[in-house]
Design brief:
Elements lengths: L14 H5 L7 E6 L5 E6 L3 E6 L5 E6 L7 E6 L7 E5 L3 E4 L5 E5 L11 E7 L8 E6 L3 E6 L4 E7 L9 E8 L3 E6 L4 E5 L5 E5 L9 E7 L2 E10 L2 E4 L2 E6 L5 E7 L4 E6 L6 E6 L3 E6 L8 E4 L13 E3 L12 E3 L4
Antiparallel strand pairs: 1-2, 2-3, 3-4, 5-6, 6-7, 7-8, 9-10, 10-11, 11-12, 13-14, 14-15, 15-16, 17-18, 18-19, 18-20, 20-21, 22-23, 23-24, 24-25, 26-27
């Protein structure tokens, strides 16, 4: 792959802005498009930029959110609609792949400082194919948005033992049509959207004592990364929990990643292979079922002051350009 497209980097700014001496805002959200060869990037100044994959040429961009609110999540829709949903502290917006705005909802505008929106997930095939999005926040509440109508169809109160301090991360793809949610209090919960977001499956004890920072779900496995307390301080937990959710929720394995995991994604082809990334640029592939040392390692050379925060993976559903096998791509964001 590197022989065709060498490892490189690109900013989200147009060429004229770079020539004028502007500095690109930090990338705060990153995701591959499941339908087109595109990468969606959200930045801390509220902009959403679409780049070609894997060449990283700019395709389109727009000011999706207020300039003083970073994009917390960008969620490609796929399905029939295409485009992507982006989440900031105050708004939920839906744009086409050409960055044409379809709708925007000021779901968190009432109290963006005390109760901002934090995360989201998309189910592209629900509601007759129009799809739905789930939005979490720092309070014990989850909203469901109808993507076709552009309106909030459900606001669920999820307060209780399953959500003590709000929802930090979400992931669609858990079995039985459940939504995997990781809380700021370390709770791992699988919620049922058909039952008003009730906690269908929950881990008995917190997965990470200081909160869950990233999770990935595939098949019957959910992998979590998080924070822990050490010597009275909050730091990255070097242990990754692998949870089996077939019958309740139980910790199947604990993976050790001394570099400190900040992102985790399942390999798009292999069932139990998980990609772990650290803030220093270390990327390691491990078997979630068997554990042990990683079977593949890569180190991204980062400039001083830069940290890695996202590691999305994206299989392409159809062979491009007459290739005999589907091509897989992965990108690392600093």
């Amino acid at each position: 792959m590197e022989g065709i497209y060498p490892l490189g980097a690109a900013t989200t700014l147009p060429a004229r802005a770079e020539a004028a001496g502007r500095y690109a805002a930090a990338v705060t959200a990153l995701a591959f498009d499941p339908l087109e060869e595109l990468v969606w990037a959200g930045t801390e100044d509220g902009r959403v930029t679409v780049l070609h994959s894997p060449s990283l040429e700019r395709h389109a961009a727009c000011q999706a959110h207020p300039v003083d609110h970073a994009v917390q999540a960008v969620l490609p829709v796929g399905g029939n609609g295409g485009g992507a949903v982006s989440v900031s502290a105050t708004h939920v917006c839906y744009h086409s792949s050409g960055c044409v705005k379809r709708w925007g909802i000021p779901e968190g505008a009432e109290d963006p400082h005390s109760d901002p929106l934090t995360c989201g997930a998309v189910d592209a095939h629900a509601l007759g194919g129009s799809g739905r999005a789930f939005i979490g926040r720092t309070s014990a509440a989850i909203a469901q948005v109808d993507l076709g109508a552009g309106r909030v169809s459900l606001r669920a109160d999820v307060s209780g033992a399953s959500c003590t301090a709000g929802t930090a991360v979400m992931e669609w793809g858990a079995p039985r049509g459940l939504l995997a949610c990781g809380g700021f209090g370390g709770e791992l919960v699988l919620r049922d959207p058909r039952g008003g977001m009730r906690a269908d499956v929950a881990l008995a004890t917190p997965a990470h004592t200081a909160g869950i920072s990233a999770l990935a779900a595939k098949g019957d496995l959910v992998v979590t990364c998080g924070l822990t307390h050490r010597a009275g301080m909050v730091c990255v937990d070097p242990f990754v929990k692998v949870v089996d959710v077939r019958m309740g929720a139980r910790v199947l394995n604990v993976l050790q990643f001394p570099a400190g995991p900040v992102a985790a994604r399942f390999h798009p082809r292999h069932t139990s292979s998980v990609m772990l990334c650290s803030g220093s640029g270390m990327v390691q592939a491990m078997d979630a079922g068997e554990g042990g040392t990683g079977y593949q390692n890569y180190r991204l050379q980062l400039d001083v002051g830069l940290t890695l925060s996202h590691c999305p993976t994206a299989p392409l559903p159809h062979p491009p350009y007459g290739a005999s096998n589907p091509r897989e791509a992965s990108a690392i964001d600093n």
